[in-house]
Amino acid sequence: MPRSLCQAQGSGAPEVAAARIAAEGTFWRQEQGAAPMASAVAKARASEAAHQLSAIAHAVHGAIGVTEEYDLQLYTRRLHEWRLARGCEAWWNRQLGRHVLTARPRRVADVARQVF
Predict the structure, then answer these.
(1) Opening angle at CA 23, ends 54 and 100, nearest 5
(2) On the CB side of 55, how many CA atoms lie within 13 Å of its CA?
(3) Pick from 4, 97, 93, 114: which is nearest to 47 by CA?
(4) Where are the domains of the chain?
(5) Cα–Cα nearest to 104, from 93, 91, 114, 90
(6) Alpha helices, DSSP H only, in 62-107?
(7) Which residue from 58, 50, 110 is spatially nearest to 78, judged by alpha carbons?
(8) According to the model, what pLDDT value does residue 8 have?
(9) Does pLDDT of 115 surpass 70?
(10) Looking at domain 11-115, which CATH architecture does it have?
């Protein structure tokens, strides 16, 4: 049985790490030239992390997180606005799926190597 609510919900660290790695990889790829699929991966991972982390924050803080006096509601609104800006994670994941289907690789790992 988990000892705390954070352990029950997860720490969010893997989501943040995955989003950061994807964003940094995109940055380095764009210095070498255009990297639209790397950007799609980074946007999708960051959007997924924002959604999951805001859910964890509200679970930890409880109902007070949605009150006007508590700043968590401001951060949550901003996170969700940024998450939905220029397409949510589902839209970017569909774009990646279409890229994989049109590339027709022998293995999906071949596409991943090309993206990063």
Answers:
(1) 100
(2) 12
(3) 93
(4) 11-115
(5) 114
(6) 72-84, 89-103
(7) 50
(8) 47
(9) no
(10) Up-down Bundle (1.20)
One DSSP character per residue, 1-56 reads --SSHHHHH--SHHHHHHHHHHHHHHHHHHHHS--HHHHHHHHHHHHHHHHHHHHH
The residue among 54, 74, 58, 50 whose CA lies nearest residue 5 is: 58
Question: Which is higher by pLDDT, 3 or 113?
Answer: 113
Half-sphere CA count of 111, side-chain side, radius 13 A: 17
Two tokens, residue 44: 């999708």
C-alpha to C-alpha distance for 44 and 107, rounded to whole angstroms: 21
pLDDT at 10: 64
Q: 93 CB contacts (<8 Å, ≥6 apart)?
A: 44
Nearest residue to 89 (alpha-carbon basis) of 53, 23, 40, 25? 40
What pLDDT does residue 47 have? Answer: 92
Q: State pLDDT tens for residues 15-67.
A: 888 889 888 888 887 776 657 888 888 999 999 999 888 888 888 887 676 67
